[in-house]
Amino acid sequence: MFTNNDINFEALKRKAYNGRWATLEEGIIPLTAADPDFRMSKEIENGIIEYIKDGYLSYGPFSGLPEFKKSVAEHFNKGKKGSFTPENVLAVNSAAMGMYMVAKYVLNPGDEAIIFDPVDFLFKKTVDSVGGNIKLCAVDSKTGDIDFEMLVSLISPKTKLISICNPHNPVGRIYSREILQKIADIAAAHDLWVMSDEIWSDIVYDKKEFNTYSSVSENAKKKSFTVFGFSKSFGIAGLRIGAVLCNDQELMDDFTEKSMFNSTIEGVSTLSQIAASVAIDKAKPWFNDFLTHLQHNRDLAHSMLSNSGVLIPNLPEATFVIFPKINNGMSSDEFAQHVLKEGKVAIVPGSERWFGKGAEGHVRICFSTSQEILTEGLNRIINSF
């Protein structure tokens, strides 16, 4: 199901944008944007077809279809230790949009938000876009360990928000219940909001436990939002479907109102919500096979890079990206440009633009492709030096 023969390269070259097959010259292998090379499951495809058979695509409820909200709540409650009701769920246009909406709701211009360094660029971008000021808290670029002393020292009267990425992109760390409790205690002591981006929380290896942030304590439930999406786990990035979850219903109702999801000004495609509901309710067997394939690819990438002499890899606990350290003195941008020119492989440099200053000296490599493509891509990287 997840071999090279299962990848439709012609379709990818027509449709896979965001730094992938449709944007690159012929012959270049993209190990870039975190998007699978494999088609979505037949269950999702059939679910979409079935939904449109009667010819109606009418308005749905502004905050989301009941089946979508129910599916997402159950997904978190069964697999991530959550305690959400369907009413605690708001359908949004992607996890990225959810992050922006939370920043807009929580921050006034000039307010401060603490984010990790390194971390995905969307954390900075969403805070910047609402006029907030960024404070960077260092995390270890190999292990993802949080510098808690630094975290506390960054808090000022202007601080309003701590944003966490769990599992962490690009390091692949899953934060334990104890670490999340520590964050919750710090947030409560200083009356801060917490936003937890959990878009990667399905892609977890070695049967490790994942705890959704709001589940770890009563403090964590207060003044917190959880953001989720479907692009990573189920390969439906183009449908732009995500969710914001909040245990406090009064807070969620106010958030929905102020985000204008109470009229036709905002709202999410019903077709996208149906696809997401089917993904959760019917595509788990497909997903479980996908996860097994990804774990094999993670192990393959770690093994090949460990023996390369060129890059020193970490071992991600989650996600389908690996974040190795450059071993030859090149900067992240230099390394990525060299690999693109000499090896015909596109990767993401660990530059400030993409992940913050703490990412320098690393590159991010996506491995949600076939074993053959991954092996060829990694060999090209290694042999280009």
UniProtKB/TrEMBL annotation:
Protein name: Aminotransferase
GO molecular function: lyase activity; pyridoxal phosphate binding; transaminase activity
EC numbers for this chain: 2.6.1.-
Keywords assigned by UniProt, alphabetized: Aminotransferase, Lyase, Pyridoxal phosphate, Transferase
Domain of life: Bacteria
Pfam families, per the entry: Aminotran_1_2 (PF00155)
Alphabetical list of SUPFAM superfamilies matching this protein: PLP-dependent transferases
Domain Aminotransferase class I/classII large: 29-381
Co-factor(s): pyridoxal 5'-phosphate
A Gene Ontology BP annotation from the UniProt entry: amino acid metabolic process
Enzyme class: transferase
PANTHER family associated with the record: ASPARTATE AMINOTRANSFERASE
Entry's family note: Belongs to the class-I pyridoxal-phosphate-dependent aminotransferase family.
InterPro entries assigned: Aminotransferase_I/II_large, AspAT/PAT-like, NHTrfase_class1_PyrdxlP-BS, PyrdxlP-dep_Trfase, PyrdxlP-dep_Trfase_major, PyrdxlP-dep_Trfase_small
Organism, scientific name: Chryseobacterium gambrini
